[in-house]
Design the sequence.
């Protein structure tokens, strides 16, 4: 009897989940649908839920006409750089912030969070001026990576700090007793244990870096070095807006990360929830 | 010298070094720009002198002008409303979903993972997408609501002063729910199962378990999620730029967008900086709240 | 010996081209399919030792980017700038005074340009650039819908009253048709669309609070209140608005010649273009002067090379209309027939309308003036303020702009 009830309950939950996910993902579905419609079908009332004659040509045009491959590879470059800088500078700090509980830690945590108060759109002018004066603008993608990493680091620190909190202190202390240095114990014992949490947080940072717009728009003046977020806005200018090409560009832009995400999502969700992070 | 190396290798210096790396980085790349904003807010800055740090001193003039601006009261109200409503729904929906997926049914992890799809999208794409969904004449949301008989006439989400802020809030909730859900799922996963088993033996109802076990155990997670939610919401810029541009007639103008508009549309850099400084003050309060909430944490 | 030979070769090469070494210029523009970007590409491929790198920047960002860049001397050599923004740069000395170059030039003569575009780039009596092209707005209308509604398709509305009556007759909610589409967006596009209405009624940007301007706003408000235009007119740009006209969801549209190409492909009906209706038949005509100017930055190290490009740009004027659907700013350049009867009829109207096109400014603080006008427009149209109060507030704000 219990078994039957359990199965019914599971089926009900499954259906509710399916419905919720469908509702939630509808905007994405609409992006794909719109990208395949003709200029006229886009404005049809009532809207077509499925394009009557899918316009694959739009994708071909966008693919050929927008340098999207170059844009995407720049996005990957920037996202990778942001992830590396964030992980390198942020991991140690999250470990320390998880290890102690005193007023200095409070102040540090406070500072880390406090420093990301303003949106990039308000930070970009001083950053541009400062970078220009020290010559960093000669390396615009690096400049973007450095600027944006300051934006992602607080979030990374907070996620990773939670991961380090779960590592029993005794393990580290045992390593110290065995003659390891603090640095040795950190590298050999603590980091491997926190690996899952760090990897998952890093992946999320990568995705943020992949979508970065404001700093790239301002700091990277060479078209050849700009990421896909900038490429997309070229489709958004007044007088040249065409919804199907924008949606096609957006689809090409985010489908790879969505696909990677769907493939990896089990590891991500498990990494985040299985106690590696809390 | 040697003592110093030893201090770093074996002592508290190791911790100091690690934290100093991050803090130095952040102070350089985020702290200095903040400082620049504060300095600029007290100066008269014209379009062509952005490179100088020091301009003619303006005293509190920029502040006074901002406070006397006819838009000021509305911006304050909009910003408050946008933040509170967004964070409230992001949090409650995120919590509900976290609890829902915490029940172990087949496919739960998969479904939860799919929800994160919203989160990995660039803000710009989300904004463009919602702009399109919310279109008055051709929007699929209006069409759906009309077909279901919920509304009789199309709502002009982006163009109606009564709905413009709501449309950005809707998009922002959609964007923020996954973040809340996943962080809260993490918190839920950390509650030892035996607490619930013990409560079940005592005959506790689901609601009792929730209020006596789940909520107290989640206090620090909830504090962190809400504080981060507020900070992220105050930083939300892309959605405004893509959906309403703060309009019509300022009905969806919020502080972060106004500051940008003053600086880069009207080139009133001093006044733009004033708003940035006021936002810093607000986030200061939120951060204190977050740091205090970490006090409740327990370490293994 | 070998060295000497090489030196000779280099010397003779340098002598054969005008430049001792190759020069690379940079130019910022909002679209890399715009005429100046295409011309720059051609110019780079010529054997003249000058190469131009074009950077495309979103319309919304180009001024802010340029200011940051100029402040740190990272600005380009050339820029294509929306004409109301020209004065700020010219007045601040950011653009190069071209007086001596123009005097020495066989190609560029400022008197060849219409007064409007020329004055948009003139500051203190000196030229600070050349116009790329000129455009303006007029009234598009769907002739089939006019016939169906019992209106004469060959007598489009010529006054505001007629426009209102036509919009009323043409509006057909059952078939999702609005009477008219335009843009009252809170951006430069909104100012661009509204200012001519105030001007036709005796107002101007310096004197916006006139009864006629309030009448114009009241009429716009009536279009909104009675559902004769889409509420999204408040937030939609001209291109999107006209898209609804092309799709048969609006019977009239106010926009510029840049629509023609798309319309001739998309619009499955007979359409025409008429001059912008005025408050009365004998009211002075007015319309907005749009399009971009091309300027050289004052801190460029290659002013001569940059000016060479301006000369090339100027020499290609005949191609603007057939290839780019842009109207030349040069006097006496006829628009060649395109073979599309509707476009050719429309272009005649736009040429006439352009005669009455007025500048926004020139004023170095144009964005602040424009913002005040946008605020008035939006707060009157949303019912926040009466038209008179909104315009009074705008006038006060404009008076404060120094």
Sequence:
């Amino acid at each position: 009897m219990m078994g039957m009830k359990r199965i019914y309950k599971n089926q009900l939950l499954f259906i509710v989940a399916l419905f919720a996910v469908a509702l939630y993902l509808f905007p994405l579905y609409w992006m794909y649908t719109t990208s395949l419609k003709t200029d006229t079908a886009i404005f049809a009332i009532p809207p077509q839920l499925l394009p009557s004659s899918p316009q694959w040509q739009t994708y071909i045009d966008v693919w050929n006409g927008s340098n999207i491959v170059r844009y995407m590879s720049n996005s990957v470059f920037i996202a990778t750089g942001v992830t590396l800088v964030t992980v390198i500078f942020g991991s140690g700090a999250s470990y320390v912030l998880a290890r102690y509980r005193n007023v200095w830690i409070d102040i540090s945590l406070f500072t880390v969070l406090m420093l990301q108060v303003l949106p990039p759109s308000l930070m970009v002018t001083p950053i541009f001026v400062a970078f220009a004066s020290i010559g960093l603008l000669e390396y615009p993608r690096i400049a973007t990576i450095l600027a944006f990493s300051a934006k992602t680091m607080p979030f990374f620190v907070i996620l990773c700090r939670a991961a380090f909190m779960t590592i029993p202190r005794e393990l580290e202390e045992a390593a110290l007793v065995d003659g390891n240095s603090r640095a040795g114990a950190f590298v050999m014992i603590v980091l491997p244990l926190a690996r899952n949490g760090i990897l998952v947080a890093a992946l999320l940072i990568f995705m943020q870096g992949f979508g970065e717009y404001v700093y790239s728009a301002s700091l990277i003046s060479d078209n050849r070095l700009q990421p896909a977020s900038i490429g997309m806005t070229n489709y958004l200018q007044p007088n040249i807006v065409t919804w199907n090409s924008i949606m096609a560009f957006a689809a090409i832009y985010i489908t790879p990360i969505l696909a990677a995400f769907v493939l990896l999502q089990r590891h991500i969700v498990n990494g985040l929830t299985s106690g590696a992070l809390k | 010298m040697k003592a110093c190396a030893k201090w770093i290798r074996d002592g508290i210096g190791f911790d100091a070094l690690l934290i100093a790396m991050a803090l130095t980085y952040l102070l350089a790349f985020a702290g200095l720009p903040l400082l620049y904003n504060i300095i600029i807010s007290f100066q008269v800055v014209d379009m062509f002198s952005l490179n100088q740090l020091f301009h003619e001193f303006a005293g509190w003039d920029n502040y006074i002008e901002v406070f006397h601006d006819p838009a000021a009261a509305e911006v304050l109200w909009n910003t408050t409303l946008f933040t509170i409503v967004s964070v409230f729904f992001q949090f409650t929906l995120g919590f509900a979903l976290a609890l829902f997926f915490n029940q172990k049914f087949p496919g739960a992890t998969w479904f939860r993972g799919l929800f994160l799809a919203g989160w990995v999208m660039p803000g710009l794409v989300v904004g463009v997408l919602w702009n399109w969904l919310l279109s008055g004449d051709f929007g699929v949301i209006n069409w759906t609501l009309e077909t279901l008989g919920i509304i009789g006439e199309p709502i002009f989400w982006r163009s109606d002063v009564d709905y413009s802020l709501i449309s950005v809030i809707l998009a922002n909730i959609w964007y923020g729910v996954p973040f809340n859900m996943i962080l809260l799922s993490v918190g839920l996963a950390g509650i030892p199962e035996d607490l619930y088993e013990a409560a079940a033996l005592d005959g506790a109802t689901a609601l009792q378990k929730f209020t006596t076990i789940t909520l107290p155990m989640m206090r620090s997670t909830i504090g962190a999620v809400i504080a981060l939610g507020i900070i992220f919401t105050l930083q939300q810029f892309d959605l405004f730029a893509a959906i309403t541009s703060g309009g019509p007639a300022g009905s969806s103008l919020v502080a972060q967008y106004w500051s940008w508009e003053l600086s880069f549309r009207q080139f009133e850099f001093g006044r733009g900086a004033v708003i940035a400084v006021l936002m810093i003050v607000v986030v200061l309060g939120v951060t204190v709240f977050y740091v205090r909430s970490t006090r409740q944490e327990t370490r293994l | 010996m070998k060295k000497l030979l090489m030196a000779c070769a280099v010397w003779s090469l340098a002598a054969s081209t005008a430049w001792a070494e190759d020069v690379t210029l940079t130019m910022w523009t909002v679209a890399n399919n715009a005429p100046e970007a295409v011309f720059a590409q051609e110019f780079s491929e010529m054997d003249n030792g000058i190469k131009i790198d074009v950077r495309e920047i979103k319309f919304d960002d180009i001024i802010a980017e340029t200011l940051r860049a100029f402040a740190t001397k990272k600005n380009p050599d050339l820029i294509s700038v929306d004409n109301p923004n020209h004065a700020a740069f010219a007045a601040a000395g950011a653009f190069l005074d071209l007086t001596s170059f123009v005097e020495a030039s066989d190609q560029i003569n400022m008197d060849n340009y219409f007064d409007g575009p020329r004055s948009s780039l003139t500051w203190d009596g000196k030229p600070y650039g050349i116009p790329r092209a000129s455009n303006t707005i007029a009234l598009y209308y769907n002739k089939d819908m006019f016939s169906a509604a019992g209106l004469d398709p060959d007598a489009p509305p010529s006054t505001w009253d007629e426009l209102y009556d036509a919009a009323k007759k043409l509006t057909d909610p059952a078939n999702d048709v609005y009477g008219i589409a335009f843009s009252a967006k809170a951006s430069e596009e909104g100012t661009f669309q509204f200012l001519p209405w105030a001007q036709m009624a005796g107002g101007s940007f310096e004197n916006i609070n006139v009864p006629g301007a309030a009448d114009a706003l009241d009429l716009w408000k009536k279009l909104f209140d009675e559902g004769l235009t889409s509420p999204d007119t408040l937030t939609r740009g001209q291109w999107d608005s006209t898209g609804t006209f092309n799709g048969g969801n609006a019977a009239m549209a106010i926009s510029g010649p840049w629509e023609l190409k798309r319309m001739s492909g998309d619009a499955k009906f007979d359409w025409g273009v008429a001059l912008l209706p005025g408050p009365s038949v004998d009211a002075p005509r007015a319309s907005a002067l749009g399009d971009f100017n091309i300027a050289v930055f004052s801190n460029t190290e290659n002013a001569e090379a940059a000016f060479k490009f301006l000369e090339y740009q100027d020499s290609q004027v005949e191609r603007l209309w057939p290839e780019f659907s842009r109207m030349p700013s040069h006097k006496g350049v006829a628009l060649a027939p395109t073979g599309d009867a509707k476009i050719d009829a429309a272009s005649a109207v736009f040429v006439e309308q352009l005669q009455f096109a007025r500048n926004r400014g020139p004023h170095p603080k144009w964005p602040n003036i424009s913002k005040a006008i946008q605020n008035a427009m939006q707060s009157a149209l949303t019912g926040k303020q009466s038209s008179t109060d909104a315009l009074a507030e705008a006038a006060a704000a404009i008076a404060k702009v120094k």
